[in-house]
Write a structure and sequence with these properties.
The protein is α/β, with parallel strands linked by helices and 308 residues long. It is built from eleven helices and twelve strands. It is 40% helix and 14% strand.
Length: 308
């Protein structure tokens, strides 16, 4: 099934000036304590935000989601939850689809019933990485693992409702709040290893668009305010290998430490990951939204991390 293009998806919703569209004031963030959710809470100033953690509202329980929506009476619902440990998704595909697809569909339906805008976050892993250039919204998805397949299913289920929904693909998100599934962020891991003298082995043959959660949160708010509903890519600008990203991280942090380049074949993982899954952001640029470069994203993260 070919991905819905941004141009077509925009036609699903109403424009910002359409009758019946009220000012957006109340926000409900599912997964509000995570890397992206916490940045939305911190950065979306002037709005009333309810941000239950995943432990407070189990999104696999439709009744719990319904209660949260009824209680918050939101104008906007942002879904920052995901089952995104890719190895675990391979072992538990049913749970991956329950969280990343069925729960997304249930949230989207609740939003349509409540007249709320729905925003859900997807991933570069919907692509197989064989194209050799940054993917656009018009490129055909072809996930290579259970995580990517479950997220793609969630995209389709949200967009098929033809409601006021934004499906936003991003890539390699890192934030000042540690990852709940890994216990660290990639940037933190690099910096910590350099400071402690631990060896670093980073893959050179996976090209991505690593994205700072703070930059993503700012861009999401700008996107929501356009009311141009549909499918979008939002990442820090540019394509980079994980090895070069790690090298730049140490440079930005003022650290010097050797990094051993390795291939993905040398990395012990049972999951096939896309080799080139950087995302293009021309569509959001056409709406006047521009993300910082991946280098600036590192600098922004290190600045914000120091102040947390």
């Amino acid at each position: 099934m070919q991905a819905t293009t941004a141009a077509r998806a925009v036609c699903y919703g109403r424009s910002a000036n359409a009758p019946g569209v009220e000012k957006l004031q109340r926000v409900l963030v599912f997964g509000g304590s995570g890397q992206l959710g916490s940045e939305i809470v911190r950065r979306w100033e002037g709005l009333s935000i309810s941000a239950p953690s995943s432990s407070e509202v189990n999104v696999e329980d439709d009744a719990a989601v319904a209660r949260a929506v009824e209680s918050a009476r939101p104008d906007i619902v942002v879904n920052c939850t995901a089952f995104h440990n890719v190895e675990q998704c391979e072992r538990e595909p049913e749970r991956a689809f329950a969280v990343n697809a069925l729960a997304v569909s249930a949230m989207a339906k609740r939003c349509r019933e409540a007249g709320a805008v729905f925003v859900t976050i997807s991933t570069d892993y919907v692509f197989d990485g064989e194209l050799g250039r940054p993917y656009t919204e018009n490129d055909r998805p072809n996930p290579t693992n259970a995580y990517g397949a479950s997220k793609l299913a969630g995209e389709h289920l949200a967009l098929l409702l033809e409601s006021n929904a934004f499906v936003v693909r991003t890539c390699g998100v890192y934030g000042t709040r540690i990852s709940s599934s890994k216990g660290y962020t990639f940037v933190d891991k690099i910096v910590k290893a350099a400071r402690s003298g631990e060896p670093l082995r980073i893959v050179t043959d996976q090209t991505v668009s690593p994205t700072y959660a703070g930059d993503l949160a700012d861009a999401l708010r700008a996107l929501v305010e356009t009311r141009a509903y549909g499918l979008y890519h939002l990442v820090n600008e540019g394509a980079v290998s994980w090895y070069d990203f790690a090298t730049e991280t140490l440079k930005c942090a003022g650290l010097s430490h050797p990094i051993e380049p390795v291939s993905s074949r040398q990395w012990a993982s049972s999951v096939r990951r896309p080799a080139f899954s950087a995302l293009a952001t021309d569509t959001v640029k056409s709406l006047g939204i521009e993300m910082p470069t991946w280098r600036q994203g590192i600098a922004n993260y290190l600045r914000d991390k120091a102040s947390v």
